[in-house]
Amino acid sequence: MIKTQDLTKVYGELHALDNLTLELEEGDLFGYIGPNGSGKTTTMRILATLLQPTWGEASVCGYSIYTHPKEIRRIIGYMPDFFGVYDDMKVIEYLEFFAAAYRIKGHGRKKICNEVLDLVDLGYKRDAFVTSLSRGMTQRLGLARVLLHDPKVLILDEPASGLDPRARIEIRSLLKELRKMGKTIMVSSHILPELSDVCNKVGMIEKGVLLVSDNVPDVMRLVRPRTVLQIGVQGDLDTAGKVLEQSNLLEKIEVHPGHLLVTLGEGVTDYSDLPTLLIQAGHKLTLFKEDEINLETAFMALTKGITA
Predict the structure, then answer these.
(1) What is the pLDDT of residues 107-118, one digit of tens each?
(2) Residue 9 counted as domain residue
(3) Confidence category of residue 219, pLDDT binned at 50, 70, 90
(4) Cβ contact 26:32 at 8 Å
(5) Do 231 and 215 belong together in one domain?
(6) Are residues 76 and 175 in the same domain?
(7) Which SS3 state, helix, strand or coil, does residue 24 take?
């Protein structure tokens, strides 16, 4: 659905994007992660045909940004981080104005506007003035606007920026619903834990260079290739650790308050014998699970905090 090859944007000596090669498939919800000034917005503007690259290729649904920009604009919905609204319009008037710009005519125009308002849970605000909306409601109105023409691809630049916790949860739920509808979504965000909850793929960019782009579990494995377990027992942890040392599955054991942190050897994925080993030695398990890492940990491990 979205492909780039060596996509580059240069401003003088500054490389805002440096040979970006990326591919998203139909139905992907792709989290685009990077510090401010890393090249996320530049990428999105190029894909939305609002900015010309210095060199490189990019296409959306098979259409080149160079030769078919009008076709791309018909099949994408692009929402920037901040966008203007018309202060003297009601919510429904605002949407009908843009629906007319998309050449949606007749009775179908109002029907579509009401449908997208219901989708983003703003139906009860249809007759309110746009200026009366909160920041979260304004973001949802922005999403409603880009959904009017039923785009195949959504490009959303920081849709949860500046929102309170409840509004972020609502945006996250909406993204999940849009993916269920078959949309391909590219979303940038600084709220990393929320991206891991909704995205099936993530990409991390720094100083215009794409560091990694893969499925979320595979990105995690780049940071921690070995399985790590949290194991808790009733009684002395040191004694339990000595029991586990009898196994040849382990590489390292660390004693932490309330549990052991056990690193398995390279390539070890079956650790089903370890609970049996402890129980046979007379220990009662209180905790046994994989020690998970999140996107924040992966981001800090893979980036250096450098901007373009």
Answers:
(1) 889 999 999 999
(2) yes
(3) confident
(4) no
(5) no
(6) yes
(7) strand
